[in-house]
């Protein structure tokens, strides 16, 4: 780890560390009214650490201005219902006003554990909070980590996700209908179904035949990370966005256009309760449709009764 900036104190003290190789474009610190404020400007983002000792009234000093997105994180020792206290105090009101004037959003999840567990009061509190610039608030997530030994505090972390994040799914083979051999699927199914009477009792046998024909004529595969419904034009936009994200994680050049493209797509791959896809039903032949029609008629008759 590399020390970016620190403020020494006989009782308190703050330090900002970063992984080796991190280059800080600028650093600054302030200790007005004994409130410790350390600021580091990195490529693409400005990070500020704040520590206010409990007995000192909150008078938030001015943070160096920057056009880059801001992350302000620290132990504010201030009470507000916005971050889990039962009521506000004067310090909490001051922090809320400062955040509003600075156009910063609080990132707080009430389902997370309390970041401070008081041994004296035997209760949990949230003095450790984090604010971010509004334009990255929707991409930000706060986590309260495991407790540190010999302290009543838990570390908190903030994660800034990419605007478009591939979904991660367990490995499970899925049908590729775009490469399906539909003539072969229909021919195999018609041949196997020819001697099966159209009786509701045979419906389970019928579905097994569909699954056998499916495995033979429709290839299966799996992407453990993917973006649902991403077509060729949207893929090009996504690749451009990835390049921008690597150079500047907070670039917005393609985000809106890419999200719009993805939201307008329809996958058409809904699966039924019997594990038969609607895409397969489209390619059923006349013989295969009979058991389906009988089963549907029987279901309707049951509802009428």
TrEMBL record:
UniProt-recorded name of the protein: Endonuclease/exonuclease/phosphatase domain-containing protein
Residue ranges of every copy of the Endonuclease/exonuclease/phosphatase domain listed in the record: 60-143
InterPro entries (alphabetical): Endo/exonu/phosph_ase_sf, Endo/exonuclease/phosphatase, RdDP_mobile_element
Organism this protein belongs to: Aldrovandia affinis
GO molecular function, one term: catalytic activity
PANTHER family linked to this entry: ENDO/EXONUCLEASE/PHOSPHATASE DOMAIN-CONTAINING PROTEIN, ENDONUCLEASE_EXONUCLEASE_PHOSPHATASE DOMAIN-CONTAINING PROTEIN
Gene3D superfamilies the UniProt entry points to: Endonuclease/exonuclease/phosphatase (3.60.10.10)
Species lineage: Eukaryota, Metazoa, Chordata, Craniata, Vertebrata
